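pasting for ref
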Amino acid sequence: MRSQLERLAEPVKSKYVSQVTAGGGREADYVAHSVITELLLYVCGPFDYEITQTIRNGDIIEGCLARLTVDVDGRRTSITEAGDITGQEKNNGERMKNASSDALKRCAMRLGLGLHLWAQSSYFLDDALAARRERMAGDGSCVECGRADDDHAPICSRRPM
């Protein structure tokens, strides 16, 4: 059975990935806030999310810090990330909404969700986690060498890479 971490690390289906024009006029992959939220809820269940700091330049909101707290494979994890604005917003409400959305996506990325969008062709986490699961015997030991600690299996010197 796949772990929650494996499911979070699975690349988002291409039908949910679109292209947007990013800084410098380059095209970038984009997944909507709603899709990230749905995937978090689907894989992890309810989670806590809070804006911990508003970043301002005078009266203008330029970003925020936000914290996502979620249980992944039985471990309570809190991640704080920064969220930015696009610069196209018309008011502080829109700026805060966009900064919060960006921060949530960045928090989710730290759990592996959407990480492939940042890593692009160098992405390997999903394959590495699947290989680790396949190398673990029913008793939790590495099938390559027999060691039983969780941190060992991904780096076993006897495993083929």
